[in-house]
Amino acid sequence: MADHGSEADPDAPHESAQTLIDALSVALRRPVLLDDPALAPLAYSRQWGEIDAVRSDSILSRGASEQVRRALEAHAIADASDVVRIAADPELGMVERLCVPLRRDGRLLGYIWLLDPQGTLGRAELDRVRDVARRVADLLVHSARRPVADEGPLFAALSSPRAAERDAAAADARGRGLLPRGPLVVCLLAPRTPALDATALASQAARRLSHGHAIVAAVPDGAALVAALTDPVLATLRPDEVARWLHTVARAEISVGQSDVADELEGIAEAGRRAAVALRVAAARPLTEAYAAWASLGADRLVAQLPVALQADLPDGISRLLRDEPGLVETLAAFLDAGGDVKATAARLALHRSGLYYRLHRIEELTGLRLSDGDDRLLAHLAVRLARLH
Predict the structure, then answer these.
(1) Mean pLDDT over the full length of the chain
(2) Do residue 91 and residue 106 come from a single domain?
């Protein structure tokens, strides 16, 4: 999200899309949401009082569900030029709301949404909303045009093993106003298809953030985004949700790995290493869930750092299972992930218990493992996790 100010002073730090949405919310004493044209949140205010399920899901999931999107678009909001009143839809858990499209030169830039279940917003309040919509549209247009430089050399210096080089790079970044002091995260983006430009996707995401709160760098096999958690958009998220946000706003076939929080720029080197570990985990996940943060990796935090060569040291029986029996591997993984709970495993796989017991017995026959033995189960779990990440 852009943080640029009015047309008279586009870099003024006091006005941003987030601050305009916050101010509108306070003035109207109701929650306000700013979406992009695809109905993914760009900014949202404090949630005054009760909010409906549609608003809650949109914020938590970083976008409207397909069912909600179809219902809202049926009101021709994409073609509207002024306020559209959307009737309540109890089946969707949606109360009555107002939609104010943001346009500039015929181009749709997004929407401002206000809950209005009692229909109490009058002409004066709507004129205020229209004024804010015009100002936010100006900011979004300016943001879309704002160039985002590739700071590859700077990121490389910040990631240097030499402390003096890191310190000099941090001083350079602060001197140029690229990043503030305070908590930061590193996200690494890797395309899942060769045609995708990860640096361009990272740059698009950076334009949603406040000026001086993010840098983008081309790196081998992808791109890096270093972002300050003090940015108004990111400040609305938990510290471990930035990868998910980035994956959502990119709307492309990418994997995103996020570091833990670095207190200052001087900690970028270690943060980048941890982001790379998280990226390895994210790349092994389905496309819709291809994001991971260091803080929530669990055991994969360690498994992902084990060398690929270790797979050559697995017992032959386990290697053959991993290579030739994908169905049994899925069963074994579900059983181990459930802590050996047969009931939970059978439910997860939609199997009768007798069918599960047969599969587990077959796994023991093929591998020589005893799944009742803690050491054998640890070996099997490590083998399955390693195979999942390679």
Answers:
(1) 87
(2) yes
